[in-house]
Amino acid sequence: MGSTERTKQYLDYKGITKYKFCNDLGFSNKFLDNSSNMGTDKACKILHYFPELNSEWLLTGNGPMLKENTTDVVVMNTNRKTIDSIHLNQEIPLYDLEAVAGLKELFKSGKPQRVLDTIKIPNLPKCDGAISVTGDSMYPLLKSGDIILYKETEFENIFFGEMYLLSVKLNDWEEYITVKYVQKSDQGQEFVRLVSQNSHHQPKDIHISQISALALIKASIRINTMM
């Protein structure tokens, strides 16, 4: 059995159609018709898109199909001139964002009943809280289900070009919560540009008055579980 056949075995296991697989990864629809081993570039793309997949199994057939339970922690926004102090031990609340009316309300309240769990990771910068990510706007750096750890801040303290969790008001009764790079806008100092990691999402310029809450992303957690 070659790596292409093992890929089809994984797709069957996950219930993913061949069409969706090829469409999502930009492969030819006939890609999986070849039963021989695939090229390294294709294998790397598959492994990047499906991080739970065991690379040794895909390439050689040895070992389990899926990785053992692992947790990847990535510290972000570390290229500033200012250096955050590292906390040897801290307990970071993981909040249920769906239980609050919005990010601003969460920052103001931080009520214990909205805490799903407590995250304990040594040697991280100070964090105020954590939430789970939804959507794919920051893929592949962040994927839906990842956990982001944040530090609340004000717009006056913003570092342009870095990644933020923010709440954007669309009108008097509607807002959305998103994770984006915040950059300077060509429309002037009263505007900022929100930029996604995913190239399929277009940048958007918004007036700074639309930002109702803001937090700098300090780290992300991705849990690779045995399904």
TrEMBL record:
Residues 98-211 form the Peptidase S24/S26A/S26B/S26C domain. InterPro entries: LexA-like, LexA/Signal_pep-like_sf, Peptidase_S24_S26A/B/C. The keyword Amino-acid biosynthesis does not apply. Keywords: DNA-binding, Transcription, Transcription regulation. One of its GO terms (molecular function) is DNA binding. Pfam families: Peptidase_S24. The keyword tRNA processing does not apply. PANTHER family: HTH CRO_C1-TYPE DOMAIN-CONTAINING PROTEIN (PTHR40661:SF1), PTHR40661. This is S24 family peptidase. It comes from Flavobacterium flavipigmentatum. The lineage of its organism: Bacteria, Pseudomonadati, Bacteroidota, Flavobacteriia, Flavobacteriales.
